Automatic annotation (TrEMBL), chains A, B:
One of its GO terms (biological process) is NAD+ biosynthetic process. Residues 322-430 form the Nicotinate phosphoribosyltransferase C-terminal domain. This is Nicotinate phosphoribosyltransferase. InterPro entries: Aldolase_TIM (IPR013785), N/Namide_PRibTrfase (IPR041525), NAPRTase_C (IPR041619), Nic_PRibTrfase-Fam (IPR007229), Nic_PRibTrfase_pncB (IPR006405), Nicotinate_pribotase-like_C (IPR036068). Keywords: Ligase, Phosphoprotein, Pyridine nucleotide biosynthesis, Transferase. Transiently phosphorylated on a His residue during the reaction cycle. Phosphorylation strongly increases the affinity for substrates and increases the rate of nicotinate D-ribonucleotide production. Dephosphorylation regenerates the low-affinity form of the enzyme, leading to product release. One of its GO terms (molecular function) is nicotinate phosphoribosyltransferase activity. Its EC number is 6.3.4.21. Belongs to the NAPRTase family.
Length: 451, 451
């Protein structure tokens, strides 16, 4: 019978920051079975790791305060790609997703605003229904439309906006939304023109909500110069707060969305008044690097170390079953990942050890770890899961702590120092041995002479 | 009850070549219901159209003779993203997929070769089992290992290859594969060294198969300079054929894979001896343009035309329910797609008509179509599918015919002419009207004075 009852897997826990050429998983079991797992495992690991890393870069670009909202479903590779994107973006550092299925399946907090089509679907104030609502604290119902129109006049006067430029449909849409969701009023304000219509309409409805003791949430900007617009919107909020004595306007938030990339996030973060960014396309498609090249290679058969040589040295693999140790410096920052053969003892804390850089052949290197942790855990043995699966929240906490522990020189977004991945002396000697044997691999022809 | 019983959809048939700003789908029905469909439809249309277009570009780059094999599952956004990639790459012009599930679900022809781990799993000729096989025409079993070793000596002599560089494990792997699949012998030959080991091993096993009246298929190259290697491999095939009098070596194929892009395909196509290309990463992730920006916008409510203005003119939409017509020139090439209001009659063949370019506001344009076709069909009405769904094979035929019909100036890969998409005069006048109304949208405030 063909099943995974003879398969064991050791794996880096989900959410751990890892570096190039560190083996993330080691799968052992009957040769034919583990060969069949190749593409399935690569498919499950590659995109998840890629989008999680991309999300972590967005988080680093945004800093810790800015909220990040994932909006990528419409640009993902189908519904399942979208769910993977939501799950792993959250682990990488995004706060919320617009994918309600991801909320339901994985517990990722869900957030969203309003579609432009909601705004454009309204033409006239006559479409607003109901027109009345109760104040937050209860009491008599108030004509919310009339109340808001009064505020709109004052807002137009204050801001010097021409009343004839305000779009009746946009006001009707905001009114309808405000009546339905007075605690969650966060419209998109760029459907017609932010300054001439969207912003005055928002302020009018929000002021009416404040008068009824509700707290409006804020606005979303989805086009134009987000940085400049956010500064202007913030200043209008301050002006309204000041002029009308409404403190609640000081806690309104501004959400920005519109093709945001890692770079635009860096730029916006420095100068804008945006509190929360919605990111879709560039997050889920990982525009900057749309694929991750994890591979699955044979390292040992029946105790015999194996490796692939290839015509490209980049594609050459390291032989033998391995353990991976992360070495930390005196400040608790990881500084080197060490690949050892699985029968070697772990590196000892405080003792110097010699190792060999992966990239530069026989350059040796002497290091003394202040702390050592084993990167992989046995997660699957004899066909059974042996460690409970991490929840998304646990993986997210692990990812954020793992990234936090990195030295700034390794996690700066531009030109970071290369993190060192090295081999133990024993692994290095094995590599030399397998290479040497490979160059005399054809001796069998001489042996066969006796045939 | 919330369902799609009131929804109707007209759609461009799957596989039709389309151009930017042509509305692919028109969805009508109860406002709240069709608003809920936005993200689902975009998710299903965007990536499918993107990867299909990308595959079509690879097909144009490869020319019509070269076979294209899709190998992208491991770099796709999860299993479902991989299936979408296989399905739509085939429609776009790929011949086969390595995803056997796509073969089963969609009938895409499946093909593949051999993994490097299969090759590296072998060390010694003692692992080859069974060692004997029957000739293709039947008869006494032959010791296939001894037969092949004899051929290997002759090949090494002919090619001037040192026998001690031939990797015993690689020969053992090829022998095992050849015994198991004598009709389908197509190994990957770059595991150790193409020229020193992989190619001589292949020739030896293939010559032994030929001696037993089988037809070996060919080789796969997965690293190094594919162009140069393929030329050398082809010349070795010719040399063997000539020297050993084995004509079957003239019909061997060479498959190339290894991070192939549209550009590398163009380059290889011109000079290499490769018959079939395997493409994964750059196909499924669409590296060149990793997302397609289809949007879903409201165009009409209760007979009232609607549009979004936005702070970015690129994001402005066209109002009103529309039909789309493709206008063909006297040679049968499409030259213009015309957006009309849905109550307009179709453009008449042979009659000149005035239209307005989408991009350049009020530039008008006079054209006379020699043929006219309606681009969209009613596919869903009152909650029911009204046209049978296309099979993958039908969509593929439509796509290939649709691309074939395009004028070369529109489908050349570099700097193609922009295909013209235009509005009818009636649609243009409606657009002007809605814009004008938008600029006086605030009159309601004056109307409200009476309150």
């Amino acid at each position: 019978m063909l099943d995974c009852s003879g398969v064991s897997i050791s794996s880096v826990p989900e959410g751990t920051a890892v570096f190039a050429r560190v083996p993330l998983l080691e799968v052992s079991g009957p040769l034919a079975v583990v060969q069949l797992l190749e593409t399935s495992l690569l498919c499950l690991v590659n995109y998840a790791s890629l989008v999680c890393s991309n999300a972590a870069r967005f988080r680093l670009a945004a800093g810790s305060k800015l909220k990040l909202m994932e909006l990528g479903l419409r640009r993902a590779q189908g519904p399942d790609g979208g769910l993977s994107a939501s799950r792993y973006s959250h682990i990488g550092g995004f706060d919320t997703t617009s994918n309600v299925m991801a909320g339901r399946l994985f517990g990722v907090p869900v957030s969203g605003t309003m579609a432009h089509s909601y705004v454009t679907s309204f033409s006239s104030l006559e479409e607003v229904w109901p027109r009345v609502m109760m104040p937050s604290g209860g009491g008599e119902k108030v004509d919310f439309v009339t109340l808001t129109i009064g505020w709109l006049r004052r807002v137009c006067d204050l801001l010097g906006v021409k009343a004839e430029n305000v779009h009746e449909g946009e006001l009707a849409a905001f009114l309808s939304f405000g009546v339905a969701y007075p605690q969650n009023f966060l419209p998109v304000i760029d459907t017609y023109s932010v300054k001439r219509s969207g912003l005055p309409c928002f302020c009018a409805v929000a002021l009416a909500l404040c008068e009824l003791d509700y707290q409006p949430v804020g606005v979303r900007l989805d086009s134009g110069d987000l940085c400049q617009l956010s500064v202007e919107v913030r200043s209008v909020f301050a002006e309204c707060s000041n002029h009308f004595g409404v403190e609640k306007f000081l806690s309104l938030i501004i959400i920005g969305s519109n093709g945001l990339s890692e770079q635009s996030l860096c730029d916006l973060n420095a100068k804008s008044e945006i509190d929360m960014m919605g990111v879709g396309t560039h997050l889920v498609t990982c525009t900057h690097q749309p694929s991750l090249g994890c591979v699955y290679k044979l390292v040992e058969v029946s105790g015999q170390p194996k490796m692939k040589f290839s015509e490209d040295s980049e594609k050459t693999t390291l032989p033998g079953s391995k353990n991976v140790y992360r070495l930390l410096d005196s400040e608790g920052h990881p500084f080197l990942d060490l690949l050892c053969l699985s029968d070697e003892p772990p590196p000892a804390v405080g003792q110097s050890l010699q190792c060999y850089l992966l990239k530069h052949g026989n350059t040796s290197y002497c290091v003394t770890p202040h702390q050592v942790s084993s990167l992989r855990q046995n997660v699957f043995s004899s066909g059974q899961i042996t460690l409970p699966l991490s929840s998304v929240a646990e993986s997210r906490a692990r990812a954020q702590n793992s990234i936090l522990s990195l030295h700034p020189r390794h996690k700066c977004l531009k030109q970071p120092d290369t993190y060192v991945v090295a081999m133990s002396e024993k692994l290095y000697l094995l590599l030399c041995d397998v290479k040497a044997k490979n160059s005399t691999a054809g001796n069998f022809l001489c042996k066969q002479e006796g045939l």
